[in-house]
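Following the same procedure, backbone shapes were mapped to integers, yielding the entry below.
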Amino acid sequence: MIRRNIPLLFFFYAINAQIALPTFQAVHKPHTTTSGTPENPLGSNISATHTNSAWHYTLGYRFTPQVNGTITQLGGYFIGTRTVRLWQRSNQSFLGSVSVTSNNDWSYTDLASSISVNSGTEYIVAVTMTGSGGAYNSTWNGPHTYGNILVSYTCWKKNHNSNSYPYWQNETYTNHMYGMADITFIPDS
């Protein structure tokens, strides 16, 4: 019996050097990879039904990415130059802002640094209106999923123009989309 096993053991010993073990190189991509197709949740799906509203509010929406990804731009639909901001809702941290110029059309501005966002974490994007040029969609009736982004509620805060987290007067409204702020989201691949 030993004689029959010795050739078999020699065979396994000889081919052992020939077997390539799997490696895990290039399996994990860093979270900051921006290789997917850019998505504008509102800008690609709705338009304003009302424009030129005279508001002194910060208005926007709550959203949850369905996959990990990166936000590269903030934007909106309004008249004039406005500040658009991004916060993480759970810890109320300010993540970034840009100045966006629009003329009743969707316009976007690159962030100084892209912002990584996580699947299942809720964020808020909002534009600050300073007395004129506001827009809204009166037929939105959310929540809606656009691409990889769940847009759940619209929210607003009167007389807020700061990077500090607003204590929203309403953050669970679903009938209209006020403010018309937006993001450019690139899903990780």
